[in-house]
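Journal club side-thread
Mid-discussion, someone asked how the predicted structure for our own chain would compare to the paper's figures. Pasting it here so we can look after the session.
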Amino acid sequence: MADFVEKSNTKTAVRDLSIPIADISTFDAIVGSVLADNPFGCVDYIEGGVTYDGVTRNRESYTAKVNYEDDDGKRVGAVSARAPTVAAFGSVATEIMGDAALATAMGGDAVRDAEHDSYSCQLRCHDPSGEIYYVTFSRNAVRITSYQDDAIRTTVETWADGVPALG
């Protein structure tokens, strides 16, 4: 029987944040700055005859949390809503908060639980060396995956050191 032979050795590095990113606006600004300013020095590339930007959103997900409390302030229910974009996240939270029929069905008043919202955005990055790697931002961590060259980790780490919310 044939054996599997290792062809590459990719790495993963994680920076756990000491304080979660404060809110969706801060999160979106961090991701937006990477897309706009390209601090990792990513380069455009062609794959299958299609030209891609050096850094692009690969996938993202945002979850809004809403609790329902009775007149005594006791939690009687909760709703989590997952949205595909930052814009949808805001709209979903607003709709849930304004849904009187849902509040009645839950038996309490809607109260945003923004502290427990979650955010995730994975960026696909193309290094000048030709390597494709991913940088995933969440509310509690930044993860670099599928890289081989330690210079990639150093570049991302140096950039993150200069972003106060990622300290």
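Post-session note: Residues 39 and 75 are 44 Å apart (CA to CA).
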